[in-house]
Amino acid sequence: MNAPLILAVDDDPDLLASVERELRSRYAADYRICPLSTPAEALAVLEASTTGGADVALVLAAEELAGAPGTEFLGEVRRFSRDAQRALLISWEHLGEPVTGDAIFEAIPRGRIDHYVVRPAPPPDEQFHQAMSTFLLGWAESRRRAPHTIDVVGESWSGRAYELREVLGRCAMPHRFCLAESREGRAILADVGERRFPLLVMPGGRVMEDPSDEDIARSSGLTIDPSGERFDLVVVGCGPAGLSAAVYGASEGLRTVVIDSGSIGGQATSSSSIRNYLGFPRGVTGADLARRAYQQAWVFGARFAFMQQVTTLRREDDGIVLGLHTGGLVVAGAVVLATGASYRRLGVPELEALHGAGVFYGAAASEASMVTGEEVVIVGGANSAGQAAIHLAAYAKRVTLVVRAATLEAAMSHYLVRQVEGTPTIEVRTGTEVVGGGGEGWLDHLVLRDRDTGEQDTVGAYALFLMIGAQPHTGWLPDAVERDDGGFVVTGSDLGDDVLRALGRRPFALETSVPGVLAAGDVRRGSVKRVASAVGEGSIAIQFVHRLLAV
Question: Could you say which residues form the signal peptide (predicted)?
Fold first, then answer.
């Protein structure tokens, strides 16, 4: 009875039978399959299941049920399960039809469905099952049950336990956290025995006691030491731009290494759902996209040096020499700077003291289950903030989105604006900023200020997620690399005339003031702060690398 539930609702018995056949043939061993013909029956089953403690993994519904749109029924599912995936069953003939497309586009922003699936064809319909697997994986990840999940056990939410969760997030490694005194924590400790906290239990059963960042990277096979070696291409930074450069560089035969002081994905790993990325109609999390790109680059031959910081860069006769924090040196024929940018610190001492104890920079995807039924505040007006608000709204009692700008449209994509405005549990406060707050050991309140009137308002808050500003990681670069007042790297035709004269030629579009050094993604002045744009710049940079190496 307690197996996770897959529910299918269709008032056409023949169509329902075909869906039931496919579900039972593949998923009956692990899930409870429940086909029903009316929304009333389905809602009763949902109520009984959740009251009895069973999980609801997936709900499928016909386009029309009892003369009403199936999206209306699917919208009711959230009353019983925050985590269940909800998909509209559409016929193959309706795929690409404007009316059907408009209905789906309207239903997603209103929070009624997660996506659609084309009805199964005669078996074997692997396309249908690919969609089912995607939905079930999305549910598993929301429940912290994704395959190869790492358990983190700590004595408190903050401190080193939080730092470890941040590291795992940067590594795009699925993980879940529990306190040592919780029911889940005691169950884990019963299996592994008394240990030094915080501890990690790896998917294979290995236990790591208070590991260093380097220990985590090494345990996952994610790092090498590039010191003393020469590469055709060194990519500094492993966000979307750096991963793209690694994929295209390695696939085109360049001996490539990626060096990053953190790990896979950069700031993109905090995106809980990127719905407008080409080729992912159901959306993709930033972490999943980063994992796929890393695996792709790795298979092509790119090598990765994580938890290692590049501290110096200089041009010499035999190439570009990069110094590491370990004292090692790496020589490159060409360099792509893809160090990205990080969220700006808020600078309120009372809130900085609660970092990891209710105050988080990014990380909304990994901390969602913690805020169930609570009041949450997100600060930011770009796409990442909108994605976080929508994701957290499925868990929190209320999400308040605090935006400095006068409108959401100033920096957020249109589809996200519609989805935010269509979610009843999200409140948007424009022209507002956070100026204070606090709590005893954990955040409990914030002080908001209206930027026009100066009026201040104290609000209750269990968690604060900060996604504001962009500070490029360029402080380590030498003066020879030209930057603007904000620290972003200047490239191509934006370089000054003195740089053009020193180069003796027109620089390539992504080339910096140092010959052979290019910049791509958020670190570059004038870049579009979107994942797709960063990926595009990373790939374009490799075309210029070939031309530089040919000189």
Answer: none
